[in-house]
Design a protein that fits this description.
It contains seven helices and nine strands. The protein is an alpha/beta fold. About 35% of the residues are buried.
């Protein structure tokens, strides 16, 4: 079976985490309903069009999509096999990080927004199975009850500003995508940090706005309001 998780150095952004002492394993599924199964409960038209799935080398998109669709279909059609493979790879990831003197981290929703805290394998979720791994993700779903080793950052979209403001009051940081020519010092009265310097969100100051630069042609040409051009 092909690997579910990306190698430590295969994702340029998460590879930066090694400079901060963290080794991050990443799971990329086919976003939204691309696979025939919905993996992004809080999706919007803007985020679907600007999804990171479409960033990178366009010549590799076809093979990338095929691989992610296969993973996603396996998750929904044969959950037992998927979870057994995921647990096997997370265990190998912990051992690799020990060998490299890195602290293990994992991001399972790199291009999805699944409730991993509710997904069980032999009665436990992966956070319970791997308490030494720091899990983290972006989410557009409020009020998730997650284990201590699962850190969430809320994703602001063109249609959920009220939820994003509520997330800030609940203690979550909020991420927002800005044009690559603009990056404000503050947004909604909160300091903006550069979220592209590294990917390890649990180390971010709180509260703050995690600023990300638009990536990919569709994101940079966004007209839905997903890309924040008016600073307020």
């Amino acid at each position: 079976m092909p690997s579910l998780l990306s190698k430590l150095d295969s994702n340029p952004k998460t590879a930066k985490n090694t400079k901060h002492g963290w080794g991050t394993a990443v799971l990329h599924l086919a976003p939204a309903s691309m696979s025939g199964f919905q993996v992004c409960q809080g999706r919007s038209a803007g985020c679907e069009a600007a999804c990171l799935h479409y960033a990178g080398n366009p010549l590799a998109l076809r093979n990338k999509t095929r691989g992610r669709v296969r993973k996603t279909q396996l998750f929904f059609q044969n959950r037992k096999v998927f979870m057994e493979q995921l647990v096997k790879e997370l265990g190998a990831h912990v051992r690799l990080c020990q060998k490299l003197d890195l602290k293990p981290a994992a991001r399972l929703n790199a291009t999805s927004d699944l409730p991993w805290e509710r997904i069980r394998h032999n009665g436990q979720n992966v956070m319970e199975l791997f308490p030494t791994i720091q899990f983290y993700d972006y989410t557009a779903v409020l009020n998730r009850q997650v284990p201590e080793n699962y850190h969430l950052t809320f994703s602001l979209k063109e249609d959920n500003a009220d939820k994003a403001r509520e997330a800030l009051t609940q203690g979550l940081n909020v991420t927002e995508v800005f044009p690559d020519t603009q990056f404000p010092e503050t947004f909604w009265g909160y300091p903006v940090i550069d979220g592209d310097e590294y990917d390890f969100r649990p180390s971010d100051p709180n509260p703050c706005i995690v600023g990300l630069k638009a990536k990919g042609k569709a994101a940079k040409e966004d007209q839905t309001g997903f890309i924040q051009r008016v600073f307020s």
